[in-house]
Amino acid sequence: MKLTLVLTVISCYFLLCSECIRADGDGDVYQVGLGMADITGPVAEVNFMGYAKIGQDGSGIHLRLYSRAFYIQDSNGSCVLYINCDIQSIDQLVRKMVLNKLSETYGKKFDESNVMIAATHTHSGPGGYLQYLLFTILSRGFNKQSTDAVVDGIVESVHRAHANIIPSKLLLTQGQVKDASVNRSPASYLLNPPEERAKYSSDVDTTMYLVKFIDANNMKLRAIISWFPVHPVSMNNTNTLVSSDNKGLASLIVEHVMNNMTEIHGPSNSFIASFSNMNAGDVSPNTRGPRCIDTGEPCDYVTSTCSDGKSAKCIAFGPGRNMEESTYIIAEKQASKALELIHDSSHDVAIAGPVSHVHEYVDMSSQSWYDPVHKTNFTTCPHALGYSFAAGTTDGPGAFDFFQGQRNSTTLWNVFRNFLGKPDQQMIECHYPKPILLATGRIRIPYAWAPSILPTQVIRIGQLVLVGIPGEPTTMAGRRIVKAVTEAVESVTSTRQASDITVIPHGYVNGYSDYIATYEEYQLQRYEGANTAYGPRTLDAYMRQFAKLARGVFTDTRDIPFGPEPPFMLKQQISWYTDVILDRHPILKKFGQVIEQPHVNYTLGETVVAQFVGAHPNNNILPTYLSVEKLSPEDATWKLVATDASFNTKFHWKRDSTILALSTVTIEFTPNEEGVYRINYFGTSRSLIGKLTNFTGRTRQFTVTEN
Ligand SMILES: *[C@@H]1O[C@H](CO)[C@@H](O)[C@H](O)[C@H]1NC(C)=O
Ligand SMILES: *[C@@H]1O[C@H](CO)[C@@H](O)[C@H](O)[C@H]1NC(C)=O
Ligand SMILES: *[C@@H]1O[C@H](CO)[C@@H](O)[C@H](O)[C@H]1NC(C)=O
Ligand SMILES: *[C@@H]1O[C@H](CO)[C@@H](O)[C@H](O)[C@H]1NC(C)=O
Ligand SMILES: *[C@@H]1O[C@H](CO)[C@@H](O)[C@H](O)[C@H]1NC(C)=O
Ligand SMILES: *[C@@H]1O[C@H](CO)[C@@H](O)[C@H](O)[C@H]1NC(C)=O
Ligand SMILES: *[C@@H]1O[C@H](CO)[C@@H](O)[C@H](O)[C@H]1NC(C)=O
Fold first, then answer.
1. Beta strands of 474-623 (E only): which ranges?
2. Which of 434, 479, 482, 563 could be a cystine partner for 361, CB 3.0 to 4.6 Å?
3. Mean pLDDT in the chain?
4. Whose atoms come closest to the Cα of 597: which ligand?
5. Active site residue 284
6. Which residue is closest in CA terms to ligand 5's atom 11?
């Protein structure tokens, strides 16, 4: 992979960019603060949140996870915090803990209404930080280290943002990102009405929206936020190295270019680039699509099964030769579009108008209203997942004999289901045609498995309207929410003002409640429909709710009630995680000792590998477990060139023997430049009585030449 070349070309082209900002137009001046902090947490032996795959536990780190915070305040003092995290999702537990901590420093300044916490939805980060059992049961329950890392990191990013507030201009632009996404349930999408589909050229949304934050004093670009819908599942369910996937890597690439850094690694507290998600429920980055891995034949279009009638062998692949290359390609497509939009000011619209925000908690399990179009009452249902939930997706198929599009139940699985929590007839009918596999809304042992009360939020920054959706809307679901919001704004303002606004259907925000498919998509019961947890009218309920919030945010925000307070279940959490008990080293060796030295000489393109006597990384959550240093030819000193956050390093930890408590660390480093280097490993070992001891290991030096 010619990573350096690509980046050099991009860098040379874009370095001139801070001069090319054309910030004319009227635009208001806002007070803007930016901050970024690490949220990585425990990198070993914690199950990854996303694929719900038992055994997909962390074993090291490729790319670190970050929180990126944006403080935005208008001239009247009304402010919002927009935070985007490299994480699968955010729920009530983390959100409440963050708000509680913020109130210790900022009093009543921040609350549910003006803080929006979004997740990129990476599937390669440690889990155990969600409060409902459904989302942690496969990952051995609650994980305190993971939760604390996320909460403390988010709060730190806000402190940093709050410490550098300066007058700024905001510019809004957009462009098309091609060949970075495909619809992974096209059979469901095709069930949407033809006249509705005819309005769109594709079964995925390819528009990237981008906001530029410009220092009003010197007109230099300080940061961007981009929105583009795609699942960060370029790293597949065999990956066990922590990774921010295509979204996080896109951020790192743009930050690297804009900060003139030589290597891709963070965090940077100068230029910040957020790559946020949208309506990505049915959007895959695996652009080569699915095929049966045993025969190479296409999978069944409707059920995603292969000749054995099961889904396990139907897997989608990305554009690269392996998952890392695919991650890079999908990241680079997003990053280069963002850099192009940064450079091209011709479509910039200067943002003007107030910052305002509304928020309401709603009980999504029991909404009901009269629908004048269908002349009937619509209701939502208690949380439940269909049989196809267990089939997984072509981005990460499930186990057992489930398939997508399963509309019949089986006696055997129904016995299992009823054992956990039995749905009554009304609930079964409410979810029809979904056959209920897990009546999650009914399971309360030992505490609630799934949410009923969810946060809904709309934030307005001038013409920009962020619709905070606590789940994963599909492409068409997102479009319908945009339509409902736009019509609502039109009903309370003017058509002209409504046509000026840009509405972002922002999925993965504030809470997590699985998928939101359209009523028509739901009928087929593929994965997204089976996971539309509150029944066939889930989307309709959200459309009504966001229309109401949109009217509120454009008229009087005091019209919106607080709603029912969701439970905060930190105290109830259960966990099957065991603490690290002990680390030992082999006889006659010590912790950090090099077991395998790098070669003496390498040529560019080769990967350097070194092995050390290791200890459990979770003993001490370090900002980096490794450093690569380069000998400076000028002054003969060692300079830091890479950490475990760098794209060209990998940190692997392996328990060789649980009984003997021995472990090995392997560090990989692929140099981008010629030079003389050495690698350091940082660790902390634990004795039987719990004493922690820090240590470091260092390789001999090695030389990298052109050829
Ligand atoms: C990057 O380099 C360019 C050109 O030398 C300079 O204008 C810009 O300020 C630099 N940016 C940062 C963040 O150092
Ligand atoms: C994951 O990606 C690797 C290539 O990096 C590939 O060999 C493997 O088959 C993929 N597995 C799944 C389940 O997607
Ligand atoms: C600030 O408040 C004044 C008076 O209510 C209003 O006219 C003006 O539009 C507001 N400005 C912004 C940016 O909200
Ligand atoms: C809708 O619900 C209301 C209130 O529960 C009820 O009075 C009405 O009869 C229902 N309408 C229909 C068409 O079912
Ligand atoms: C579901 O069951 C019905 C009748 O029992 C049968 O006709 C149909 O083929 C089944 N559908 C699937 C997808 O298995
Ligand atoms: C490494 O390269 C240097 C000069 O390029 C050479 O003198 C030396 O023999 C090489 N060492 C090995 C072990 O290949
Ligand atoms: C070990 O390292 C951690 C993190 O760098 C530090 O907080 C701690 O004080 C160190 N412990 C000792 C005994 O030096």
1. 502-506, 515-516, 594-596, 601-603, 608-614
2. 563
3. 94
4. 6
5. yes
6. 408
